[in-house]
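cron nightly-structures :: item 1 of 1
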Amino acid sequence: MSAATRTSPRSTTRNRSRRTAALSTVGAAVAALLLSACTSGGTSGGGGNTNFVLGKDGIATADKGERAAAPDLSGETVDGKQLDVAAYKGQVVVLNVWGSWCPPCRAEASGFEKVFQDLKGQGVQFVGINTRDTSTSPARAFEKQYGVSYPSLYDPTGKLMLRFAKGTLNPQAIPSTLVLDRDGKIAARSLSALSEEKLRKMISPVLAEK
């Protein structure tokens, strides 16, 4: 082997260090992306005038005369059925944006199902919006694991979320929850995971409205 092609141990070590540094940088970028895509907190909807007033508990509400109408939310569910949220007009509707890949979504799922079972007889309907799952298989597995019985629209690219007026939802804040009043208008919002207690607190005043 000639001197020109011989690699010294010191040079090999430097090359390994460069590769390790590059991989670390890529790993950090991926981690940052995942964190930005799934968060257990957040209060900003990204601008726009939504008439929400943020409470100390992180739940934002809009007065009855100041509420925006929910957009068309229809399409195929994760189990292949057709669903139109407008069909639930006259009921209080709880919309929950979630993904099977999201740890805070997993943390709140059982509580959401419990509240749904407790309130469905009182005119409350839950509807999920499943986002960023590349197929329906992990979404269905999620529903089975956590016993979720209410339907979820399949929205892998976030198109349904983009139908809301600017500032209503933040695509980086998953999970998010909206409560629609009986007229199909947005009465309350949370851009973070909810405990069972907070979810009940969010629904209760809307349910009490006449």
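cron nightly-structures :: done
The helical segments are 9-37, 103-119, 136-146, 196-208.
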